[in-house]
Amino acid sequence: MTKSALQIARASYQPKMPAILKGAVIAVDGAKTQSVADQDEIRKRFPLMYVMPIVTFKKSEEKKTFPAINAGVILSGGQAPGGHNVIAGLFDGLKDANRDSRLYGFILGPGGLIAHQYKELTKDIIDEYRNTGGFDIIGSDRTKFKKEKSHFEMAHEILKKLNIKALVIIGGDDSNTNACELAEYFKSIESDIQVIGCPKTIDGDLKNEQIEISFGFDTACKVYAEVIGNIQRDCNSAKKYWHFIKLMGRSASHIALECALQTHPNVCLISEEIAAKNQTLDDIVEYIARVIAARAFAGDNFGTVLIPEGLIEFIPEMKHLIAELNVLLCKNESEYGMRKSEQRDIISKLTEENGKLYASLPENIARQLTLDRDKNGNVQVSLIETEKLLAEMVSNRIEEWKKCDGEKYPSTSTFAIQTHFFGYEGRCAAPSNYDADYCYSLGYTASCMINAEKTGYMVSVGNTTAPADQWTAGGVPFTMMMNMEMRGNKYIPVIQKALVRLDGAPFKEFTSKRDEWAIKTDYIYPGPIQYFGPAEVCDQPTITLKLEKSK
Are 511 and 253 in contact (CB under 8 A)? Predict the structure, then answer.
């Protein structure tokens, strides 16, 4: 493998980890747990996994001898920086317990387990990928295990063939929910195979009282914040463009909020706030336009607007429109699919309120709402170019104001737009020191969970705003984090997503500053991720996490 100079330098970096994991440890069971909501239904779905205790690891005076074991690992879902270090930590933990233990990686996610595609991950392979971004060591996909297609049986078959004692699934909320289903199945057939999960998603919405943060969020936000800072320096230099920037994070606005705290944009929309205030699309356009006008009157015809990827789904009126479109398009799939439905045809079949809203949308956005659908016939809201939608509608509003004798907008001021979407750029970046350390610790903790013969748990590393040697380690039952949610047309058990809390410290910090940021040019230019240097520069966690832990 050809390596860059940075990759060569990073290969020698030894991730920091909790002091309690260095040497012999013992698993301590806490009190029995229940699901975060819908207790009766979750218990019914997972009778063998329910009420298990939280596990914490403590130092042990007794050095225990562990037998050699075979373990498997899967990367599931979208990429996130640090996945390779989870696998490295798992590998090293297994080898520290018994040098004859072996680790198998299943190729291209859960699909590789079902299709029996795998390779042994040896030290030579692991060493090539330490502290690197991406999931390319074994690849990933979004396949889910399904009982009706005998996926569980096929998975069990290859695991028994390879004499694998434990399977570690590295993924987000859906992947870890699926891991719980697999653990429940193995228990139901009296198999001794353990299933352990690991919290991954750059979106930052897999967190709770026990899971402080999902890995990859720190790195992705630092990557996006660097580029936002670069754009802000450019617009402060040229002083002629407004940049509308969409950021990844479909189900929650954590990335947008963290990037705002790091860069101080003129406008940052928070989807959860918009939903709570029942704001309309016109309300949002009006708000952005007023900020732009205020800066124009001050002589500043430039600025930045941050937009969460999933904003459309949080605007109540847009959510209602999308729901009606999904039903309409599913019922008339052949008609609209063949003719590439024109806007006026759609409008005539919508309710009056939704028809007016649909008619007000720019033509390209209206087309995306009707043509870009998933395999279930639903609109793919993540593909909607929200940044272009808002940019065009704000531009139209500004043009209207310019005609009002300069009362609402200076008639002589210019207004020019640039649009961006920062998404894939952050998913496979080389992990920050925080993510490199955190992920390695997660992987090593997973090996301890295996040695403790636990199954049905997500590994947890806590106290991560402190120096790494003070971090804690343990495991949280999957079922403790679950609730029932509507997916498609039925309720299913899933690990609960964490949305931005409007009463939380990070959002309060943001709201205390955003009016000032709107008018003043108070930009911060974070620069690139720092891998080398003093800890106060290189090893810092996100602002969000520090604010949450300071409460």
Answer: no
Show which residues are catalytic: 203
CB atoms within 10 A of CB 529: 20
Nearest partner of 419 among 261, 235, 275, 281, judged by Cα: 235
Spatial contact of 137 and 84, defined as CB atoms under 8 Å apart:
yes
Q: What does the DSSP 8-state code read for residue 375?
A: T
Block means of pLDDT (10 residues each) for the chain, 551 residues, are 86 95 95 96 96 96 92 97 98 98 97 96 96 96 81 95 98 95 96 98 95 97 98 96 95 96 98 97 97 96 96 91 82 50 75 90 82 64 87 94 85 91 95 98 98 98 97 98 85 95 98 97 95 91 94 58
CA–CA distances in Å: residue 209 to residues 48, 257, 467, 481: 23, 20, 20, 10
CA distances from 106 to 109, 127, 170, 449 (A): 6, 18, 12, 20
Q: Identify whether the C-beta of residue 215 lies closer than 8 Å to the C-beta of residue 427.
A: no
Closest residue by Cα to residue 48 from 459, 525, 456? 456
CA 484 to chain centre: 20
Residue of 209, 213, 188, 185 whose CA lies nearest to 198: 213
**Both tokens assigned to 18:** 């909790």
Virtual torsion, Cα 33, 36, 37, 42, nearest 10 deg: -50
Helix-strand-coil percent breakdown of the chain, rounded to 5?
45, 15, 35
Closest CA to 435 of 198, 169, 104: 198
**Extended beta strands in 394-471, E state:** 417-422, 457-462
Q: Which residues, in sequence order, are CB contacts of 299 under 8 Å at separation 6+?
A: none
For 199-216, b/e burial (b = at least 16 CB within 10 A) is bbbbbbbbbbebbbbbbb
SS3 assignment, position 43 = helix
